[in-house]
Write a structure and sequence with these properties.
The longest helix has 24 residues. The chain has one domain. It starts with a helix and ends in a 9-residue tail after the last helix. About 50% of the residues are buried. The chain is an all-alpha fold. It is built from 15 helices and no strands.
Length: about 300
């Protein structure tokens, strides 16, 4: 890898550290807030620094020709991942959701390959199939966890698909805009939905709940860090390292998340969790390494 790609991996790793708090902070938020309010509220919180940065930078409005790409990105970043992952965490612990989320690098790489029409080796697809098989075995054999909720598994899988797609779509936008502008406009363009929805949810239900300090801290961290600041180095990392390669750094997130779940939530980690996580990480690593050995589409480039 060249200097730019190594720099991109560094940015991606820093973003993963911030992202790794997402699941535990969502669990904290759910102590007092509903899944929908957790999803819409974090986006509203993220819009506050986004507006400030854009005003300070005196940025112009994005042209209508780019609205579609931003719309696809916000569907996954603002609604898909936050809503589905919050619903999943209401039904199960952080650990099993973290293991399902550990396939996100593989899914992101596949989306990048499919959208970029890149040639990959047969080993890449074998490794991807191996990871998917491990995931299916995990989701159908839940005896090692306190819950046996297949719905939570599918909610987590849906969240992974939504998030992976928005990563790829957002990375494409960084070819035109810096990463901080991409995520800033994403949360701002979502305000016509997230702000009224948050107000309605608060007035109809949330204000009657007992609000804990954990819930407030969780919402602030989700809004400022997971929903906004983490995306700035993340999109920069995907741009510099390449979407498929940069996304593989996220395989480290599951270990960080599992650690946070023990420290902050007091959860236990059954041996099966670590076994499944290691298996998925190995398959993802195999996939990306085989892809890196594939010749470029244009040898002359």
């Amino acid at each position: 890898m060249n200097k730019t790609q190594i720099q991109g991996i560094g940015f991606a790793f820093f973003a993963v550290i911030l992202f790794s708090l997402s699941l535990p902070m969502t669990r904290w938020s759910l102590e007092s807030y509903s899944p929908l309010f957790t999803a819409t509220g974090r986006a509203v919180i993220a819009a506050v620094p986004a507006i400030c940065f854009l005003v300070i930078a005196r940025e112009k409005l994005i042209p209508p020709s780019h609205h579609k790409e931003f719309f696809y990105t916000l569907l996954g970043a603002v609604f898909g991942w936050p809503v589905l992952i919050a619903l999943a965490l209401m039904r199960t612990d952080t650990a099993p959701v973290a293991v399902v989320a550990s396939i996100m690098p593989m899914v992101t790489a596949i989306f990048a390959v499919l959208r970029g029409h890149e040639n990959v080796s047969g080993q890449f697809w074998i490794a991807s199939l191996l990871g998917t098989t491990i995931l299916l075995i995990f989701t159908t054999t839940r005896s090692s966890f306190n819950t046996e909720d297949i719905v939570a598994d599918f909610l987590a899988i849906g969240a992974v698909l939504a998030s992976s797609f928005c990563y790829v779509q957002g990375a494409e936008l960084t070819r035109i805009y810096p990463g901080w502008k991409v995520i800033s406009w994403v949360v701002i363009l979502a305000l016509p939905i997230t702000l009224p929805a948050s107000i309605w949810l608060w007035m109809s239900n949330e204000r009657d709940q007992v609000i804990t300090s954990h819930a407030n801290i969780g919402m602030l961290v989700l809004g400022i860090s997971s929903m906004y600041l983490a995306f700035i180095p993340w999109y920069r990392g995907l741009k510099d390292a390449g979407t498929a390669r940069g996304a593989q750094v996220q395989q480290l997130q599951v270990f960080l998340t599992l650690g946070w779940s023990v420290i902050l939530l007091g959860e236990s980690i059954p041996p099966a969790t670590l076994i499944c996580t290691i298996g998925i990480v190995i398959s993802v690593s195999w996939a990306i390494l085989s892809r890196q050995r594939t010749p470029l589409e244009n040898p002359a480039s």
